[in-house]
Amino acid sequence: MIELKSARDKEKMRRAGLIVAEVLQVLKKAVKPGMMTKELDHIADYEIRSRGAVPVFKGYHGYPASVCVSVNHEVVHGIPGPRRLKEHDLVSVDLGAVIDSFVGDAALSLFVGEPPDERAALLLKVTEESLYAGIQAAQSGGHLGDISHTVQQYVERHGFSVVRDYVGHGIGHQMHEDPQVPNYGLPGRGILLKPGLALAIEPMVNAGDYEVDVLDDGWTVVTRDGSLSAHFEHTIFITETGPEILTRID
Ligand code: MF3
Ligand code: CO
Asked: Where does a divalent metal cation 2 bind (predicted)?
């Protein structure tokens, strides 16, 4: 069942989204060579709660932390721990917060210091741009497949691949609501996009092939071929006049 949200709901979701956006910026600034990924979790937990919100990932199907930190060939759902970041690592940080019973969810990728090479730098850039292309395709009167197709086309045009096994999602009172939002598909297919639809669009892009595996910790998703992977996500809200990004500071 797909629930459409009111204008009032949108403003509540914006509050959650803004907190997620702010905390992601704090984390981005905190990333330093030599730091442990669990330090990012402590910061995230503290920064979310100090804004009056609650981390949504913690305890979600038993997930043990407030943030996901996925490094290099890790795609998503990396569990923060004693691992130390080093110069040139590609780090993806994913965060969710709930306030006033609405959820915000967003992710970004960055390098620790300089990128290791030009192709890695391009992977990150293309992944972020594919998210914004997908958001632009989220127009009332269009179809869900327009978003999926736009992301896929953008990514594959640059020689990278989109992960199939994990997808974006509807969002609202719950972090994961209907519909699923794949990063691959055909234009004109899927549900009709309407004002009041809130979506988390989240391209997960591999430098190599799209296949992934889950590590023995039961969470960490890695590329099967060991290639680098990047991840960007925004929570958006479809209005009559276009998509609004709720997890952006501006
Ligand atoms: N943002 C991710 C998602 O939308 C991460 C959630 S995984 C969790 O699926 F278990 F940590 F919550
Ligand atoms: Co998400």
From this structure: 105, 169, 202, 233
Given a contact cutoff of 8 angstroms between Cβ atoms, the answer to whether 168 and 137 are in contact is: no
Report the distance separating Cα 227 and Cα 181, nearest Å: 24
Instruction: Give Cβ neighbours of residue 210 (< 8 Å, ≥ 6 apart).
Output: 161, 162, 163, 164
Query: Residues of the chain with pLDDT > 90: what percent?
Result: 100
What is the residue-averaged pLDDT of the chain? 98
Is 57's C-beta closer than 6 angstroms to any atom of ligand 1?
yes
Contact, 211 vs 224, CB < 8 A? yes
Which tens digits make up the pLDDT trace of 72-118? Answer: 999 999 999 999 999 999 999 999 999 999 999 999 999 999 999 99
- pLDDT, position 250: 77
Q: 86 CB contacts (<8 Å, ≥6 apart)?
A: 33, 34, 112
* 231 backbone dihedrals φ, ψ, rounded to 5°: -150, 125
Q: Is 60 in the pocket of ligand 1 (CB under 6 A)?
A: yes
Residues 231 and 203 sit within 8 Å (Cβ to Cβ)? yes
Which ligand sits nearest to residue 68's alpha carbon?
1
Identify the residue whose tokens are 């990333």: 31
On whether 42 is known to bind a ligand per the annotation, the reply is no
Please, what are the domains in the chain? 7-245 (3.90.230.10)
CB of residue 63 inside a 6 A radius of ligand 1: yes
Annotated ligand binding at 169? The verdict is yes
Q: What is the pLDDT of residues 138-177, one digit of tens each?
A: 999 999 999 999 999 999 999 999 999 999 999 999 999 9
Amino acid, res. 203: P
